Amino acid sequence: MAGGSGTRLWPLSRSGYPKQFLVLAGNTSLLQQAAQRLAGLAAADIVVTSPLVVGNEEHRFMVLDQLREVQATPAAVLLEPMGRNTAPAVTLAALQALEAGADPVLVVTPSDQTVADDAAFTRALQAAARRAASGEIVILGIRPDRPETGYGYIRADGSAVAQFVEKPDTPTAERYLADGGYYWNAGIFVLKASVWLAALERFRPDIAEATRAAWAGRATDAQFVRPDKALFGAVPSESVDYAVMERCPGSGQPLGMEVLDAGWNDLGAWEAVWQAAPKDGAGNAAIGDALIEDSRNTLVHASSRLVGAVGVSDVVIVETPDAVLVADRSRSQDVKKIVARLGAEQRGEHALHRKVHRPWGWYDSIDMGERFQVKRILVKPGASLSLQKHHHRAEHWIVVSGTAEVTNGDQVILLTENQSTYIPLGQVHRLANPGKVPLEIIEVQSGSYLGEDDIVRFEDTYGRT
């Protein structure tokens, strides 16, 4: 499941580029790590097929690009027209999984978590898959190591689930930890596709019926599968836990638990990132170009420049090219309040980074002022921007590296390093990369209005006309 927005990890995570696509450690994103962990479940009695990804329209090309980079190309990317929580999302995946005529076991997992011990994760998931093959629903329970109030808990009765409990207050969480029979709910569960659909039809037939109707009206475009938008909008919004899981104990539907003891972390806030990060002897975690002196239990995440911290304790400092966050580490959940204000004030930092990813590559707005903007643009090999024009701006393009195929009115020309061209206001134009290496250009815009909505598209490879 890859549809979350991760607002509590702002400014690194934003709705246009949420946390599942971020590289928080190492050189792979959380989405890529999730796909690689699942691929590792293969055994003599377990065949792992290509993943199914449930996400949204805005992120569809990022999903494909990132999974192709780690040789985990999905069998399908199921695109929700709007968010309807996790129960409809899992239903879409179950319906897709049954299309080939088989009834596979589904490992349902968020795409934005991390584990420290991959081998322990594999053992727990393999055990869960073997149990699920006989019709049991199996959920992973995380053995708690602290009285956490930010997670829901599972009360276990041996290897069965006795009860789900809501996020507790601190005294209750301390009691759960001392009891030893309570586990964190990681939101990872394993079951056959038919078992999910039967349980949903039993407990929430309204969700099952509405999602099936939207699925019946789906449209397919290569790997992208789009349920009917209007019908999906009528699907009740509900989580997996509320729709099915919490109703299973005592219902006759077997619901089991496998203990996961693998250094799991949901990275739900900067506090969790600090907990998962390597630290020095004073408890400080530095990611990127960061220098920390005379400080304790502090996280510094530097994305684009040197960040120094002196004499601070229990602080989170996160730097990006266009925004800096400084927060008390214990208040990191409240970062969402900043995000809410940005949205209310309609500020661009709410949704997008300065560097914006597009299906064809990316652009980075490196400078702007009155009536001008400068962008650094990268176009992937074989990719092209839309055939377009602008009503309010002209553009100059300078090739930094690679080869550019430029459509400028009736002309089509090739430009190489250090060559340039001018696109007059109102001229129909297109930029393409016909080469085998990335194309990088500098674009200088000038005009009375430079917003991204001043684009009239005539043709587009990515269906945006």
From TrEMBL:
All residue ranges annotated as the Nucleotidyl transferase domain in the record: 1-280
Catalytic activity: alpha-D-mannose 1-phosphate + GTP + H(+) = GDP-alpha-D-mannose + diphosphate
UniProtKB keywords: GTP-binding, Isomerase, Nucleotide-binding, Nucleotidyltransferase, Transferase
CDD domains for the chain: cupin_PMI_typeII_C, GDP-M1P_Guanylyltransferase
Domain MannoseP isomerase/GMP-like beta-helix: 294-342
UniProt EC number: 2.7.7.13
Positions of the Mannose-6-phosphate isomerase type II C-terminal domain: 346-460
One biological process term in Gene Ontology: polysaccharide biosynthetic process
GO terms assigned for molecular function: GTP binding; isomerase activity; mannose-1-phosphate guanylyltransferase (GTP) activity
Family: Belongs to the mannose-6-phosphate isomerase type 2 family.
PANTHER family reported for this sequence: MANNOSE-1-PHOSPHATE GUANYLYLTRANSFERASE
Designated name of the protein: mannose-1-phosphate guanylyltransferase
Organism lineage string: Bacteria, Pseudomonadati, Pseudomonadota, Betaproteobacteria, Burkholderiales
